[in-house]
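1st attempt posting a full record on here, be nice pls
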Amino acid sequence: MQPSRFGLLVAILAFLVPGFVGSPVLSGTLTASTFLGGSNKDGILESQMAVDAQGNIFVAGRTRSTDFPVIEGSFDADGHNGGTNDVFISKFSPDLTTLLASTYLGGVGNDGTWPGVALAIDPEGNVYVTGRTTSSDFPHTYGSLSGPSDAFVAKFDNNLENLLACRLLGGTSNEYYLQLAIDADGNVFVSGSTSSSDFVTTVGAYQTTYAGGGTSPYPGDLFVSKYTSDLSGLLASTFLGGSSYEYCESLLIGDDGNVYLAGWEGSSNFPKKSGAYDTTFAGGIFDAFVSVLSGDLTSLEAATFLGGTGWDFIYGMALDGDGNVYVTGHTQSTTFPTTEGAWDRTYNGATGDTDDAFISKFDPALQNLLASTYLGSPGWDFGMYLAFIESGELLVAGNTGSQGFPVLEGVYDATYNGARDDFIALMSNDLTSRITATFLGGALQDEPTGLVLLQSGDVCLGSITVSSDFPKTATSYDTIFNGSGGAWDWGVEESYGGDVALTILPGGYFADRDHDGLLDMMDNCPEIANPDQSDADLDGIGNVCDPCTDTDDDGYGDPGFAANTCNVDNCPAFSNPDQTDSDGDGVGNACDNCFLSPNPDQLDSNGDCPPPPYASDPRCGDACPGCCVGRVGDANGEGDYPDEVTLGDIMLMVDAKFVSGDCSKLPCVAEADVNQDGGADPNCDDHVTLGDIMTLVDFLFITGPENATLPDCFGGMAW
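the predicted structure (as tokens):
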């Protein structure tokens, strides 16, 4: 397992960079989180989600609750239809504060049963849902119940008020594991598993003959059927299978119009394609598979096995912009194929007892395994859903039963909460780095049921939970756990359920828009690369994007910072909000070693200047005469005003002017120019006069120091 480059960077920066605080946003922040449910068991392993063009969030699943929340005016708000389970479809506002629409869908039998339902929205905003039903009175417009259980596909308007169409499809046996996708033309694709040898296929389809092998609860072949958008016309339908059993867990339509399927199967003769990455069943009970059919379902374009000597399952799939195929699932194979440089090439679980999650990447033709990694801990770990964030990294949502799962401090939740938790991880798209990962859950069992990326860049995860302490936000639709249920028995449909939970996590936990190795939530400048995170004024905004880097906090920006849009500070090291600059040299008085003589270079050759800030002019810079500091009068240089202005100063001035006439005896003419008629640079001959002497006489002996003051040197500024 490779160390996280992000984690190392945070640690290094915290040690080396002054002011680096790691994250301006505290961990533990959720954008929104809500429960959804009634007093019985709601949700199922796969209760999928979708988002419409307005950002509204849809979720579908199954419910046993007669008091499941429905909205008046929705298609069926009259109550549960009487069977063990009904399907539900619900629509939330983008912030999860309002349940906009919610309806039952079902009959007197068992609807939406194991392993769940699938959901999709077409370009017009219509809502499609597919699942399984045993109800002879299931509301439908096309088809009829043909076996013990059939698949259904239902189409609603966006507000869930009207059932626009519904088709039942199946043969004389059972259909399971339904998936749903809609192509660019609005055609509806349904995939699943069937034990019905008479499941309808179309002339010219890739496989028109049932290959067999399945017995309940292990159906035989996969099927894929393509319908018109109004569900009235069957455009194409094919089997896809070998002599054992197959399960489709993910269905996508590529930009090329091809149909991508992924799941798990037990048939060594499952259809494969020459030149594929792996055409040999690796053993164990199941191998994972990825297959690609043409959009008209007439040809197999690509197909490969994926697995080791244990069992291997794919649950989630995603396609990147280049057509590369990513899959995630779980494996008990210590020999599961990994690639050089991958994040983790070592199986983490207890052999034969627990599973690791995995993520794998194929080229579009499924001929090359471009990257593959484990993602796990000593407990059970399942990868279930995939999504790409805007910057190209890969989100993986799944489930873990171990506190040892590799999460990262500083994201939402780094503490395992108990029983089973959801997780969301962000991987580099080459799978060499786990950028971040977080737990999500409460004290009891939690399991993810869907993952969508919102228009805001935030991440929405659907879950089923029996944890009353599952994280929720105060303003969300429902903050109180409603349901029932204890520990789940994997694969036993009756044991599943509790409440549905929808959670929106800030996208900043999982995004690195500027690709500087720091997640947006941790980055003090998330849109401009700054791996050093320099923040001179420690305001939490990096220098490269701070509109006013202001280290003295006086409202004026320090010079030399390109991002500054505020006025430049003339004394950046010390607060001077008035920005006074008496000599106009660009250096504020608070920093200027010579207030009244322009000296932008601030030279002080003899080093006699005291350190700033200056409340008055130090007059110590090279540009100043330098001998008069404070008030005038210390003509003999023995000391400063007021204590050292003495009769000795008067006698020296009298001697220099009227006795010896030797002005060089005055160590500082500026001190002797008491009346300041010589300005900043007086001379003895012209500016040291009898008037200056008489002013000192008055100061010392007539008015007195207690009642009089002498002028400041050079224009009335005292130091």
